């Protein structure tokens, strides 16, 4: 399939420079970039909400030992304090 893309002049210049440095055709570079973008976004969108944030869970300490049991109490305190 053939695809025509309009892009800013600065992208064209960068693409030309990269093409010369890498010894590849412009179309090869565009195909590589498109492949990387599509595969990266497919992986992101196929993850469950838990998989997207699991690397963040448990990395911060609140200093409260009973936060898991009293989270509602602390949340209400925080809301009242902010208003």
Measure the end-to-end span.
58 Å
Give me the number of helical elements: 4
Roughly how much helix do the residues carry, as a percent range?
A: 55-70%
Strand content of the residues, in percent?
under 5%
**H/E element string?**
HHHH
Largest sheet: none
Poorly predicted residue ranges? none
Overall shape: it is elongated
Structural class: mainly alpha
Mean pLDDT over the full residue set: 88
Query: How much is the radius of gyration in Å?
Result: 24 Å
Number of discrete domains: 1
In total, the number of strands is: 0
Any chance you could write out the topology, listing elements then pairs?
Elements: H1 9-22, H2 26-45, H3 49-53, H4 67-82
Short description:
The chain is mainly α and 83 residues long. It has helices spanning 9-22, 26-45, 49-53, 67-82.
Describe the protein in words.
The protein is mostly helical and 83 residues long. It has one domain. The N and C termini lie far apart (58 Å).
Name some characteristics of this structure.
83 residues, mainly alpha, 4 helices, 66% helix, elongated
């Amino acid at each position: 399939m053939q695809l025509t893309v309009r892009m800013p002049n600065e992208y064209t210049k960068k693409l030309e420079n990269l093409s010369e440095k890498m010894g590849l055709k412009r179309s090869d570079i565009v195909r590589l970039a498109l492949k990387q973008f599509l595969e990266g976004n497919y992986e992101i969108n196929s993850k469950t909400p838990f998989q997207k944030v699991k690397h963040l869970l448990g990395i911060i300490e609140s200093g409260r030992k009973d936060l898991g049991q009293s989270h509602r109490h602390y949340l209400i305190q925080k809301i009242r304090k902010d208003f």
